[in-house]
Batch of 2 targets.
Target 1
Amino acid sequence: MPPTRRTRQQPLSHGRIVATALGLLSRVGLPDLTMRAIGTELGVQQSALYHHFANKQAMLGAVADEILARAPRPSTPDEAPWQARVQERCTQLHAAVTAYPDGADLVMSMWAFGMGGQTPFDELSLLLREAGISPAVAPTAARTLLHFVYGHAYDEQSHDVAARSGILTAEREPSDFGTGLRILVSGIEALLP
Amino acid sequence: MPPTRRTRQQPLSHGRIVATALGLLSRVGLPDLTMRAIGTELGVQQSALYHHFANKQAMLGAVADEILARAPRPSTPDEAPWQARVQERCTQLHAAVTAYPDGADLVMSMWAFGMGGQTPFDELSLLLREAGISPAVAPTAARTLLHFVYGHAYDEQSHDVAARSGILTAEREPSDFGTGLRILVSGIEALLP
DNA sequence: ACCTGAACACCGTTCAAGT
DNA sequence: ACCTGAACACCGTTCAAGT
């Protein structure tokens, strides 16, 4: 008797697989997000998933994109100082990846591997170019911001996992993310002519 | 006929296992750094390793510490400006983790999980406190620097792996690391009274 | 105390066969 | 075209048994 097997109503599709994977991720975490578990949840064999994605990594790339797509849209007006806009976007991305267990790990890996998560980089690069950062440096600054956002989120989420395993790690102040972000924005500001 | 099985001369030990794992890591990478492969390399059963480490993660923590311990020692004199000292240390750490395939991934994971890599954080925190950064903010600044160092190195190494798999990712300028580091140091400088 | 040998409970991926 | 069912080639970890 399988634990949770839903009868299949609709045919499989990219979107249905990603939605199911996302729901499963939030319940069991990345290590238990197996192709078998996703198949069981959808009421199909694990091998059926390979008709829609070339391999597991391609599917995880789509999941990472969905996590980022669920980040709230910026509310700061376009006329606001670029510092405020950058800080808002980074805070939203931080919230988006920490909304799912191991979300930072997943998004960071997929972005580094070139299999997803390109949008935040493009958005931040554009925002910084509009702010007057030279086109040669804007991508570097955007990457540096994202390394911080994902790295910090990864740290927080690993801290949670480690704490659950009874491992001691350094405590993290709630203000820590904001302070780090201000360091970065000040540093980028110093590059302006 | 096993591929490479060395006859065992000395008894197993922490140090011998770590050294063997490090050699294997540099040849085959993290995904193929299995307990079986390490055992074969040492001429023992994989289960023998569990008499010296509680589990694979604990062993990988020791490997991460060894990678960091092999970073070159600072040559910049203690009297030099803190900016130069921070930049040198970060550049050395960057070199240390990129010296082994998947080194950044390994060190970042173990540090986040609290199973290794504590030394760089302690060193940078101290250095920044000596520079006049308030004790409340110095750890945050140190963490922000390390997120950048490891994040950037992780990116570069993933780029290599992806390229080998024929996946296209954005090109990276060699000056990119230095530019990002200067952004961070400028930002930390802005926190000084 | 240290290690062997075998097993357990899993993985991702492939592929002939069905519909 | 889409999916099943079974297999393949692996994993990390455990544990009785040997020395």
Target 2
Amino acid sequence: MTASRALNGTGHIARATEERIQIIAEKYKYRPNLLIRGVQTGRTMNIGVIFPADLGFYTNVLEGLHDELLASNYSIQLSLIHQHLGEHAIRQEHQQILRLLDLRVDGIILRPVNDDASDLYFKEVFERNIPLVTIDRKLENVHCDALGTNDFKAGQQAAEYLITKGHRNILLAATGDIVSTGRERRNGFLSSAEKVKGVHVSIINETDFKHHENEARNALTSHPEITAAFCVTDILAAGLYNTALKLGIRIPKDLSVLGFGNLGMGPYLNPPLSTFDQHPAKIGKAAAQLLVKRINSTSEKKRAQQKTISADILERQSVRNINSHETPR
Amino acid sequence: MTASRALNGTGHIARATEERIQIIAEKYKYRPNLLIRGVQTGRTMNIGVIFPADLGFYTNVLEGLHDELLASNYSIQLSLIHQHLGEHAIRQEHQQILRLLDLRVDGIILRPVNDDASDLYFKEVFERNIPLVTIDRKLENVHCDALGTNDFKAGQQAAEYLITKGHRNILLAATGDIVSTGRERRNGFLSSAEKVKGVHVSIINETDFKHHENEARNALTSHPEITAAFCVTDILAAGLYNTALKLGIRIPKDLSVLGFGNLGMGPYLNPPLSTFDQHPAKIGKAAAQLLVKRINSTSEKKRAQQKTISADILERQSVRNINSHETPR
DNA sequence: TTGTAAGCGTTATCAT
DNA sequence: ATGATAACGCTTACAA
């Protein structure tokens, strides 16, 4: 017992005893057994993290998460889920959650597979009072903290930005209603665009990316008045670059393109893609902070918080200002 | 005790008892405490993984690792190290290794910060007989399993490929001697190129990527006879695209470019970059297999294995065949 | 086939 | 300030 106190620096202890014990510990290379400490204290200082197997954007979220958790002396128990497996992915996710619980993690950070999970799906988590923070998905029927981008606002910013640059006929490449993030960006964009007279938006709204190229070609050829496009993700923007190239449409001279997500290919496209930076590391950091706070809060009653990090535009060279006085030619 | 046997399906037990216990377990929603099981059995079924914080290439290694480990019922304890912090990174790494040990992981998979660690650096790991597999770095003075790309061979493949395509004056963009992977690719390339008469290699050999653009410009202007370049990493290849653009050199008409690593920007470059696929998921999978085998092997005496995954060329559109009969103009 | 006893390494609690 | 005791939940070893 005295040894425990000396090594952890907890409680009253004589300086001399403390030093003596520390010396002995060093001599015998004592190392604590964190498993048993976890059992005993009820806190493992281990956080479960569940992300899509194809990390992409989440690598940086993970990095932010990791750094912040490490700063609070937490480790990360990582699970990856292959998202494309449909129902099987959901089963996998649930199983991994149970495993993390069995491992006695102190909290869970999760980018859920599907948007419409309910409290019931997470019942084991709640029963054990393990704090849960979701990333990038607001689960309507789940009462837990959530963290993500303010996608609606970002969509608004996109519209305002392109309109400010003089564009009035704009293509909106969106991804349907299934994924909440893309849906919000689209809705935000439309809400802002509608407020400005003389602005016309052509919209592609396909969940399947394969359909986008065709639709984009149709839109651009039948509406030559379009001078700008907002793509709800950089992947669509990159696709649009190809379509434009095939049609002989030059970016940004003939068509301005604004992407979303700063997904890594942006700087390598020609011209470099202007896009939204979601600050993924900040998202991770904030999620970790929320979780740690929740773990340490004795009053379990605090309502679920939905925190949001603002994305902002990273200007590169794919958007042109077409206001007459700025482009005199 | 009987319950333990029934729930784990281990040992002799009456069918009736087993079922009765399982029903009770279900009724009370019994879940095992994996911490205590780990303490008791000496196996936590948890593997420590330490990767660079800036995962990049390692995201896919991690994915392969994860899937293979999961198949063997292992979880992952993840640590990230910020590589650019020099000595501090090494301290961090060491601390994380100790932490994983305290957490009683059954094995460790590590992409080490530095190439010249010795057995001493890992002494705590060896003392506890925890298997260690390194990724992408052959530590000369450490007796542990290692997994990576066969970089020397890949370098040879690169030379042979470009030579087969008719190139005789080739630029080799390399990264000095510090990082073993790049060094091996360079040496492999040179070893194959030297064997063929009439082949001349101009070499840039700078660790700092910033110097590459200048050097490349010099090389290309003073040696207009150069028709191809092999870049030891895609990042250098992307840089070379820019340099070429500035100099009015067209790819692949005037200059063929072959990259390395398939780092993600390749398909988005113009023209799409031909490069080496290192099959990172396979590397992860093989590393996991090696580790699991090592964990299960009772005879600890088996010598360290160095397994290697062959990289191969992913042909896109940045390398041109300039043999006269194929390009009649 | 089932059950008993001991022990894993630590901390909480209470006593000295 | 220090120490004794119990407890955490499980499995190994052995007994019945």
